[in-house]
Amino acid sequence: MFAVHLVSSFFSKLQEDPTKKVDRFLYTMHLHDDQLSDISACFQAEMKKGLSAESNAAAAVKMLPTHVHSTPDGSEKGQFLVLDLGGSKFKVLQVKVREGTGIGRGGVDIEEKIYPIPEELLTGSGKELFDHVSESLKDFLHDKNISVENKLPLAFTFSFPCEQSTLNQGLLLHWSKNFRARGVQGKDVVQALRGAVDRTGGMDVEVLALVNDTVATMMTCGFDDRYCEVGLIVGSGTSACYMEELRHIDLVEGDEGRMCVNTEWGAFGDDGALNDYITEFDREVDAASNNPGKQILEKMVSGMYLGELVRLVVLKMAKLGLLFEGSVSDALRTKGKITTAHVAAMEEYKNGLKNTRNILVDLDLSPTPDDCIAVQHVSTTVSFRSSNLVAAGLAAILTRIRQNRHLRTLRITVGVDGTVYKTHPRYANRLHKVVQRLVPDCHVRFVLSDGGSSKGAALVTAVAERLASQRQQVDETLSPLRLSREKLLLVKKRMRGALEAGLKSKGPFAVKMLPSYVYQTPDGTEHGKYLALGLGRTNFRALLVDLNKGLQQNSRLNHKIYPIPVEITQGSGEELFDHIAQCVGDFLDYMGMKGARLPAGFTFSFPCKQTGIDTGTLVSWTKGFKATDCEGHDVVSMLREAIKRRNDFDLDIVSVVNDAVGTMMSCAYEDPQCEIGLIVGTGTNVCYMEELKNIEKVEQEKGKEEREGEEEKQDDGAERQKKEEDAGIPKMCINTEWGGLGDDGSLDDIITHYDMEVDQNSLNPGKQRFEKLISGMYLGEVVRQVLLDLTSRGLLFRGQVTETLKTPGIFQTKYLSQIESDRLALLQVRSVLQQLGLDSTCDDSIIVKEVCGAVSHRAAQLCGAGLAAVVDKIRENRGLDHLDIPVGVAGSLYKLHPHFSGFLQETVKMLALQCNVTFLPSEGGSGTGAALTAAVARKTLEM
Ligand code: GLC
Ligand code: GLC
């Protein structure tokens, strides 16, 4: 651009280039990139100050929450009236966001009418101003034949700073630009509008949203471009808004998701932040304005002031003899004689100089060609400074967004509107270039808002309605997963009934209540070395336990885990046990102990019917297992046979225990009061010490044995009985297999159709209904079913049911835990979803997290209801009014999920008022429990 000037000055008599003269005169208006970076950094600090509750009152930049939570997703619909007040013109509009047309410009129809506002109304009484607004609205309805029979939804674009506590309310903080109507500042402008509508009469209007023009601009562009999360106005006034993380907005409750913040950056500098850059002309403009001392940045940047700045510079230069040979006209002395439109005309590409000359002549001046060049350059300098300052502000906002989202580079779109940006021939280009230089790590697209602030206001309303209806539908969807205290008490009661029934001798029972033949918990005197073997879901564990050392030490050392391939879990039983035997062999090799015949405890985490501590007939597989020819067989014999088939080592299998029992045993080793073991992992289960006299099935068998038994044996029995009495009441640990609750239909009123899907797709349909509501193997699937449903109803992932979402098992427990641990404004949720190949918006992430929360909360509550039944039963067994009882607990869900344990505890407390339950996470896991069981069993034998 300087080229034109240089060339023309070269031909103009080789005297000094007139632009240099201007540059020297206006050197403080030239802002270099490092200065702009300083300003940008300073503005970033101001934004922080405005967002924080402590410093907001003192902050110049107000950072006003707008209660706009989301940009459009293209599915918005509806028909709205819009009032647009505070831009260059007052307009009334009807905006139709058409249903079904989806994303695209074609989706919105606008009819509008401009209503001039008489000068005197701007500075008259607020009542008059709003009456004018409301009467214009009435005229518009009449003009466009809009029926007034029904309530008319209306959005109000009001381009002034408002403190909003909801979307459709807002106190005017102060007027800006050329408005100054009395009695409105500090008042709710929606209320003022309603009052005026009532006075006008004949209309029934519902104001749904109060929207700043920056916000409306962002929304308009956001309708076509989902990356648009910044709105910028450079018109009569200037401001910008952007999507901020809710957790950073102190003034609004909630910390999940985002909200648009209207920065009101026009006030930047009101506290002196821009003093280094302010010129005497800025001071003059400010002093002569409606609001001296206020909106300092706005007065350096926006359309209301640019022309005036140019006039003051030209006047001063003329007075100093630097222009027009020192002559000054009255017109040049008159405020408002040079407008922003003039500034734009002076900088036009081809006609700029000619226009400048005409403008000056109209001001009764006689400019030389050099004068014209100089004045044009003044205009360029003033408007260039404006775009530079806007660029610095935008750079601050973009950097903040990039940092908020922990991104190295940011792709973003800025929606822009305003007369200066739109009509000045060079403004937009310069702005874009400077922004690119200041924030090279942001890929910014600028989009001129089409339909501007009015269409946007309608969209704000439409988005709010979409969110509200979406919210309602999501709430409705999740409501069957939310269980009342009454429901949970029912579950407790049913569990209690099932526990009692299972102890009886005749089955079948939903809750199997399997005797474990573990009569005692450890007393701490156990000693010796044991091999602990464990078959869980996806792996087999071998562990050498030295009971002479602490349990924790044991679990770290001498430990090996062998993954079990899925083919083997679902192949033949012989293959499965051969595989296990091979793992044991490998472990003994590894420990160098193949020659020793070690006593071994076997943790087998499936339901087994036991007749002694060292036999167990598998009742049925649960969780992911399906190996053939195992159900109905003694798993200890199967293991022994597999070892025999190998013939390279020998093992003395002393005990077989369920993992719940193992857990209880290992916790009881630390705390002898512990008489309950709880597992919440892949599966869920509970065991507890039951009084022998209550275990009908064992008591009957015992009676049978005793009748058939010989004299010596009876002696033995009598001996043992005596010992047990010494130790207190005779008890036996019962493996409840509570996962089967509901298999008889008793939970049908709680089971949702999502649960039914999960059940139907499982390896054991109809079985383990309670487990399927609680444990890690199924929670992710329940979540997936809910997400599938929400998506197919268009409430999630833009309605796109992807292959990923259709893939069973993608939501592993660890992902649930990660999603629910998110404290980083959903960043973690999004990254988990991204890992899973699900492209989510911020709103999607909120919903996904909510679904996970509902499902895991329900799981913890149901588990708590079950546990409440167990502890109350123990309390009643002991005839106590109050019971303090520790529960040994293990399992990945319990251990890793951020909220499960808390909700579990809370629920037990709520449902078992007479019990005080504490939880002891098992240290050594169920493996050491198997060793302890073996040790206890051996001791009993030795006795
Ligand atoms: C003024 C107003 C602000 C508006 C801007 C652009 O700065 O205070 O609310 O966004 O002008 O119209
Ligand atoms: C399943 C099994 C049960 C086990 C539980 C936890 O419910 O049936 O035996 O204790 O999972 O692993």
UniProtKB/TrEMBL annotation:
Catalyzes the phosphorylation of hexose, such as D-glucose and D-fructose, to hexose 6-phosphate (D-glucose 6-phosphate and D-fructose 6-phosphate, respectively). Mediates the initial step of glycolysis by catalyzing phosphorylation of D-glucose to D-glucose 6-phosphate. It is found in: Cytoplasm; Mitochondrion membrane. Pathway: Carbohydrate metabolism; hexose metabolism; Carbohydrate degradation; glycolysis; D-glyceraldehyde 3-phosphate and glycerone phosphate from D-glucose: step 1/4. The keyword ATP-binding applies. It comes from the Eukaryota. GO terms for cellular component: cytosol; mitochondrial membrane. Belongs to the hexokinase family. One of its GO terms (molecular function) is ATP binding. The keyword ATP-binding applies. Keywords: ATP-binding, Cytoplasm, Glycolysis, Kinase, Membrane, Mitochondrion, Nucleotide-binding, Repeat, Transferase. Residues 699-726 are annotated as: Disordered. PANTHER family: HEXOKINASE, HEXOKINASE HKDC1. This is Hexokinase-3.
